[in-house]
Write a structure and sequence with these properties.
9-stranded mixed beta sheet, disordered N terminus, 10-stranded mixed beta sheet
């Protein structure tokens, strides 16, 4: 009797669990504009016809997203139910940050979609830039301590931001502020905010700042190409011509020719400026303007710095001196740093020199490594790598040997070609001789058979031949 009671209790306790079983809560992180797929973690789904998706609203309300396998409600063009009953949401907006529930009448699966956002405070302090990075959820800016979530700030190359002009404020683990002492070169500069959970990056968002009368900073390696945008689209509908200038002087063919740069510049159809092969002479301040009715409107300013590496071998090619030069548009600022990235094992570095708007660093290698190697020079600003250039060695002796081997290789090729042609011609000649000999033997046999049948013919032929010879002899005598 007792056993039947226990069995009944087990069955009764199982029924409500089966009717409303919930999987452990899941979280998905994304950024605005992303496309996401929310999985329906219900085991053994055979058909989506009984699947429903609901979205949490404020004050405990719930709205339908999918009912009986069909997408309902607003935003139908951005939502779709996939074959595995997952919910796809395209082009995320702020309002998509909600709690979602998938159920089929027997099981329930929950997932929370949280969107990381990065905005700029429109009213910062004087000469300040203030960026806000926060995790947007349907619950608002709640605490995240229990989930080991952190927000980190980085530069465009994912280097952590540090320096005296940067300040951080973190009201919560889901909300962080970056306050920057503004510079003109912060114009069109990209900043990144990363959300990590258990020290793993889950999502990254970026923001590009705009500074009034600012100047965009660019770096280029000598020999590479670089292009500058004019932002001419901002003046759409306005008449006039777009003109580029460097150092305050219009970038015309005459100016370019004076500096030996005529072929380097090219203005594209979108008014962007292309420098096809950068040299140190191209360092400077560039300006794109719209000129109309005698008036000039500045559309964009660009400051270009160039980086180059030169090499000098010692006598015999046993030692090497490399010189890395950063040519600045104006005086190189104090927060610039020039280093040989990961090259300390190869040689001795010199102290950094600042000469005529250039930073110079040399690397001396007393003994060249036996194995092949590469050496890289890097430009740092506020801890971030702005540009790098890699140098690969080619020893002078190797070049001489290669050049000396060219005539020898050419002669070998000519000799091989001549031998091949001679062999081919000889083979063709031998084959032709054999065929001719065979054919002549056959003809000779036929003539012999005819001679056996007709005996007088040879005498007549002999007389005719003699007559012909005598006639030819008389002709020669007449000529003489």
């Amino acid at each position: 009797m007792m056993s039947f009671l226990l069995l009944g209790l087990c069955v009764l306790s199982f029924i409500p669990i089966a009717a409303g079983l919930q999987s452990s809560d899941n979280f998905m992180f994304a950024s605005l504009g992303d496309n996401v797929i929310l999985p329906c973690d219900i085991p053994s789904i055979k058909s989506c016809l009984s699947t429903n998706w609901n979205m949490a609203e404020l004050f405990g309300a719930v709205s339908e997203v999918v009912k009986a396998g069909k997408v309902t409600g607003p935003n139908l063009h951005r939502r779709a139910l996939l074959r595995d009953c997952s919910l796809q949401i395209n082009h995320l907006v702020n309002d998509d940050a909600r709690d979602y529930t998938c159920d089929n009448g027997s099981f329930i699966s929950n997932i929370s979609l949280e969107i990381l956002q990065l905005t700029e405070n429109p009213t910062p302090g004087e000469d300040k830039i203030e960026l806000h990075c926060f995790l947007n959820t349907y619950k608002g800016l709640g605490p995240c301590n229990d989930r080991d979530i952190r927000i980190k700030w980085t530069t465009e190359d994912n280097t952590p931001i540090y320096g005296n002009r940067f300040h951080f404020k973190n009201p919560t683990n889901c909300f962080s502020k970056l306050i920057i002492n503004k510079k003109l070169i912060d114009h069109h500069r990209k900043w990144k905010c990363q959300l990590t959970q258990n020290d793993m990056v889950k999502v990254t968002v970026s923001y590009t700042t705009t500074v009034t009368d600012g100047i965009e900073e660019e770096f280029a390696a000598v020999g590479d190409s670089v292009s500058f945008f004019c932002n001419h689209t901002s003046s759409h509908g306005m008449g006039g011509n777009v003109e580029w200038a460097v150092g305050g002087r219009p970038l015309t063919d005459d100016i370019s020719r004076d500096k030996g740069r005529t072929d380097a510049f090219h203005v594209n159809k979108d008014s962007s400026l292309l420098i096809s092969e950068v040299s140190a002479l191209h360092s400077g301040d560039y300006q794109c303007s719209l000129v109309s009715a005698g008036e000039q409107k500045v559309l964009n300013k660009v400051r270009l710095h160039t980086l180059d590496i030169t090499s000098n071998y010692g006598p015999g090619g046993d030692n090497l001196t490399l010189t890395c030069v950063l040519t600045c548009a104006q005086e190189c600022e104090k927060d610039f740093n020039l280093t040989w990235c990961g090259s300390s094992e190869y040689g001795m570095q010199s102290s950094l020199m600042n000469v005529n708007n250039s930073l110079i660093s040399t690397l001396f290698l007393p003994v060249l490594p036996v194995r092949s190697f590469e050496i890289t020079c890097c430009v740092h600003r506020e801890g971030a790598v702005m540009i790098s250039k890699t140098w690969s060695p080619v020893k002078p002796l190797q070049i001489l040997v290669w050049l000396a081997s060219l005539p020898l290789g050419f002669l070998v090729c000519v000799a091989a070609g001549g031998l091949y042609m001679y062999t081919k011609r000889k083979h063709n000649r031998d084959t032709g001789t054999e065929q001719t000999s065979t054919e002549m033997n056959h003809v000779y046999e036929i003539i012999q058979d005819e001679n056996n049948e007709e005996q007088p013919l040879p005498r007549q032929s002999t007389r005719q031949a003699a007559t012909t010879t005598d006639s030819f002899y008389d002709l020669l005598q007449a000529v003489n």
